[in-house]
Amino acid sequence: MSDTPLVFNHTVQGLFSRSFPEGVPPELKAKLRAVGVDLDKPLLPAYPRVTWARCIELGASFAFPQERGEGAWRRMGERMIDGYQESMIGRAMFSTLRLLGPRRMLQRAQKNFRSGNNYTEVRFTDVSPTSMELWFNEVDEVLRHFTVGLVLAGMRVGGAVEPQVELLHSDAKGFTLRASWKEKA
Prior knowledge:
There is one protein chain. The radius of gyration is 16 Å and the shape is globular. By secondary structure, the chain is an alpha+beta fold. The strands form 2 sheets. Strands 3-4-6-5 form a 4-stranded antiparallel sheet, covered by helices on one side. The chain has a two-stranded antiparallel sheet with strand order 1-2. A hairpin with a 2-residue loop joins strand 3 (122-128) and strand 4 (131-136). The chain contains 7 helices and 6 strands. Helices cover 50% and strands 21% of the residues. Helix 5 (88-107) crosses helix 7.
């Protein structure tokens, strides 16, 4: 396995097809080309993590022009999952995750993230029957907030009742978030 953190091309393609269902604006395509992602040509097999972060940052500025920074990056994560659930594969995956419930779904986070990249590590700790802390080895600020959005939307479409995700702390090795939900009535 490569020591270089890479994000696979289907993840990059998924972000833009789901975030911009009407098509990626030409101005955004030009900015993406400048960072090494040409959506008008076949995508490379994988892209460096720093390029992926820049894609999210640029995409968020077009998808959510009224928002900046953390909020826009989180919403990009949510939008990616919300769009993914509308695909045939996404519908099947999330129907399975709904059967697992929030805890078991979160316990599979590393496996799910690793389907899109070669580097994500996740460790989880049970806090209560309806709360877990998850540590991710993500060091990029944009990707940390994007991941919070992915987890929140994943919990929501996975059937968690009133899911909440909070970034607790981060350092040079990763970040910890708390995911919580309500018991089903």
